[in-house]
């Protein structure tokens, strides 16, 4: 939301494990968030852009992927 409102680019960065307690931080190309259009559509498009970057990194380093937060809510059982 901040990047969309200000026009700032998002610089995606991620760690790559190089050994025991050794990591290299890699920064990708800046992502320009779209700013024109319906707010709900903008959020969806920009989220897809960020998720596409995450998907690429996870495919490159699948053994380093671990998500500790429930990203998408679950429906309550009735």
Shape: flat
Give the class from helix and strand content and strand pairing: alpha+beta
Distance between the termini: 34 Å
Low-confidence stretches: none
Report the C-alpha radius of gyration, rounded.
16 Å
Q: Please give the share of residues in helix.
A: 25-40%
Main sheet: strand order:
1-4
What is the typical, i.e. mean, pLDDT?
A: 90
Task: List the total number of helices.
Answer: 2
- Percentage of residues in DSSP E strands: 15-25%
Order of helices and strands: HEEEEH
The biggest sheet, with number of strands, parallel, antiparallel or mixed sense and barrel status, is: 2 strands, antiparallel
Count all strands and give the number: 4
